[in-house]
Amino acid sequence: MTVLSLDALSVSLRGRPVLRDATLSVGAGELVGLIGPNGAGKTTLMRAALGLLGARGRSSLAALPARERARTAAWMPQSREIAWPVTVETLVMLGRLPHMAGGQRPAAADHASVDRALARMELDPLRHRTATRLSGGEQARVLIARALAQETPLILADEPIAGLDPAYQIATMQTFAGLAASGHAVVVSLHDLPLAARHCTRLVMMDRGRIVADGAPDAVLTPERLAEVFHVRALHRQTEEGPIFQPIEVIR
Predict the structure, then answer these.
(1) pLDDT by residue (tens digit) across 65-86?
(2) Counting C-beta atoms within 10 Å of the first and last residue's C-beta, which end of the chain has fewer, N or C?
(3) What is the model's pLDDT at position 164?
(4) CB 185 within 8 A of CB 208
(5) Is the distance from CB of 211 to CB of 230 less than 8 angstroms?
(6) pLDDT (tens digit, 9 = 90+) per residue, 225-234?
(7) Hey, what domains does the chain have and what are their CATH numbers?
(8) Nearest alpha-carbon partner for 198 in 166, 227, 225, 152
(9) How is the chain classified by DSSP, letter by letter?
(10) What is the mean pLDDT of the chain?
(11) Spatial separation of the C-alpha atoms in residues 246 and 192, rounded to whole Å
């Protein structure tokens, strides 16, 4: 089942094209890694897909009414600012707002969703801590938990593992992979190509505002594309535990 469909989506900012004719379809059960160098258009694509930027073309998600959109897609932006000194549990409960009528108190189902999200991100011991007093990595995990508590068919996450230590980077990607395996669609932008190669079912490579490759990791991360788009050479090995992919040299 298709969860997100983009057709010739284009965005210009201050008269400069930053996203050019992006056509993309994401189905349930996919963990799609959105990769590309800085300025390639990854964040713009996700924001335009959500209807947060004016764009030409069509996004199936942006066409939805705001409340239905919030019940369809959870959005995790790069910015991780937590503005209010609320508890971790209260912050994660904000993910349930699209499912509650105005003024309605959280129901048992909402508390259960929050409990599941806290458990997934190993945050239960911190549930009563003030979120603004946590470390940067802990705050990142709290914001991921808030998106998980939203329990939407689609999750869009912009560099969610940036700033996490290696264990939590792997654990977060495993969480996303588990969500995809259970029928969700997950689109995540990444700069960590080894983790993208290892955990994503599909990679979409962008460069200068365009989608330049879309397919299985092995088919996308070719030596030619790595040299042209990322200007790197990498080692790639298949092991019993899965693919190992490591950039090792800059190509000038």
Answers:
(1) 999 999 999 999 988 788 889 9
(2) C
(3) 87
(4) no
(5) no
(6) 999 999 999 9
(7) 2-250 (3.40.50.300)
(8) 166
(9) -EEEEEEEEEEEETTEEEEEEEEEEEETT-EEEEE-STTSSHHHHHHHHTTSS--EEEETTTTS-HHHHHHHEEEE-S-----S--BHHHHHHGGGGGGS-TTPPP-HHHHHHHHHHHHHTT-GGGTTSBGGGS-HHHHHHHHHHHHHHT--SEEEEESTTTT--HHHHHHHHHHHHHHHHTT-EEEEEES-HHHHHHH-SEEEEEETTEEEEEE-HHHHS-HHHIIIII-EEEEEEEETTEEEEEEEEE--
(10) 93
(11) 9
| Burial class, 50, CB count within 10 angstroms (exposed 0-12 / middle 13-18 / buried 19+) | buried
User: What is the C-alpha separation between 10 and 17, in angstroms, rounded?
Assistant: 8
| Stated pTM of the model | 0.91
Sheet holding 16-27, edge to edge: 16-27, 2-13, 56-59
